[in-house]
Amino acid sequence: MTSLPLAILHEQPGDAAAIDHLHERAFGPGRFARSAYRLREGVAAAPDLSFTARVGTLLVGSNRLTPILIGDSPALLLGPLVVDPAFRSKGIGLALLDTSLKAAELGGHRLVMLVGDEPYYARVGFSRIPNGRVALPGPVDPRRVLWRPLAEGATEGVGGEARRAA
C-alpha cells in the first residue's frame, strides 16, 4: 500500500473534467473504439460505486462501475480504472479496486466483469471467463475478459451477449 496521504472518495460531478483528462493521458484517443468503452457508451456509471483517489487536492486516480447485462443477468462493468502515470505502482489502483468491489458487494451486486490484464486483476479475485461464455461488442482478446463473483454461485447460468443495461 502507498505511504502517500491518499484519500479514496466517491466521485463527484465536478471531478468529470479531471477524470477525462486522466483517461486521455493514460489510454489515448483509441480508447473509444475498445469493447469496454462501447458497452459503457450512453450509460452513466453507478455514482455509489465510482470512486476517486486524491493526494491532497490532486485527483490522481479513478474507478467506475457501470451496470450491464450479460444475457439476462445483471452485472457491473469495472472501469476504466486509471491512475496518473506519475503515481503508478504505489498501490492506488488496488485501493480503488478494493473500495469499489466492497461497495458493490455491500450494495447487493453479484457479479463484476472487466476487460484487462489477468495478472493484475487476479490479485483482487478476478479470473478469466471461459471462452465463448460471454460475447462483447467489437473485437476483444478473450484472455482479457474477466469476472469476479461477489456472491456464492454468481456465475452459474450466466452467459450470452454483454450489453448496456437500460
From TrEMBL:
InterPro entries: Acyl_CoA_acyltransferase, GNAT_dom
Alphabetical list of SUPFAM superfamilies matching this protein: Acyl-CoA N-acyltransferases (Nat)
TM stretches of this protein: none
GO MF term (any one): acyltransferase activity, transferring groups other than amino-acyl groups
PROSITE patterns the UniProt entry points to: GNAT
Domain N-acetyltransferase: 6-152
Protein name: N-acetyltransferase
Species in which this protein is naturally found: Methylopila jiangsuensis
